[in-house]
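User: Just a sanity check before I run the rest of the batch. Below are the structure tokens for the first item. I only need the designed sequence back.
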């Protein structure tokens, strides 16, 4: 006599890594120092870079090289797998903004993205993604956006380069950051297929 159970039979479900949290400016606009923002889920750069490049690779042409600043990453891989090929990773300490990452491709030239610390809370990340991907405001750097967010909202982030030359001082105008942070954010996901099919909220 066999035992019975109300539980459904087990199924093998293919593992799918979480998609990259990424916001990009529209293709037709002047891009300036930043093309958007990336909010990684951890500081495991090998895993996070693969997920990020997997999204950008079909949107911009084959990603050929990635450059990061070593300040906030505990370990930096020399290569990462991306859509069936391998991409070299280079690191810098002074030549690249500590809050920025650069991805080079054959067709776009480069993607310059603000890196939002993984520990950042969702409201702060949403503001930073909106500001970095905003095309209406004045051009600004990654460190300047981070400093503006910190000046306006205090401890919404756990990581800020306190020694940055672009740290926001009392009296500086943060109105442009506030305006950009309040505009809709165009979130690109791995399933979007193209920037025109981007979703509009941070997950």
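Assistant: Here's the designed sequence for the first item:
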């Amino acid at each position: 006599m066999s035992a019975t159970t109300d539980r459904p039979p087990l199924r093998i479900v293919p593992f799918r890594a979480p998609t990259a949290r990424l916001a990009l400016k529209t293709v037709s606009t002047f891009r300036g120092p930043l093309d958007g923002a990336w909010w990684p889920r951890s500081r495991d750069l090998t895993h996070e870079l693969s997920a990020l490049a997997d999204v950008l690779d079909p949107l911009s042409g084959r990603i050929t090289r990635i450059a990061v600043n070593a300040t906030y990453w505990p370990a930096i891989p020399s290569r990462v797998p991306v859509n069936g090929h391998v991409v070299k990773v280079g690191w810098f300490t002074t030549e690249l903004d500590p809050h920025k990452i650069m991805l080079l491709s054959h067709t776009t030239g480069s993607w310059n993205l603000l890196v939002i610390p993984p520990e950042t809370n969702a409201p702060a990340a949403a503001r930073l993604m909106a500001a970095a991907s905003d095309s209406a405001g004045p051009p600004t750097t990654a460190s300047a956006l981070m400093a503006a967010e910190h000046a306006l909202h205090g401890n919404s982030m756990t990581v800020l380069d306190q020694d940055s030359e672009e740290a926001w001082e009392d009296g500086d105008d943060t109105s442009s950051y506030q305006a950009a942070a309040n505009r809709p954010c165009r979130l690109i996901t791995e399933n979007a297929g193209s920037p025109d099919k981007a979703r509009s909220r941070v997950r």
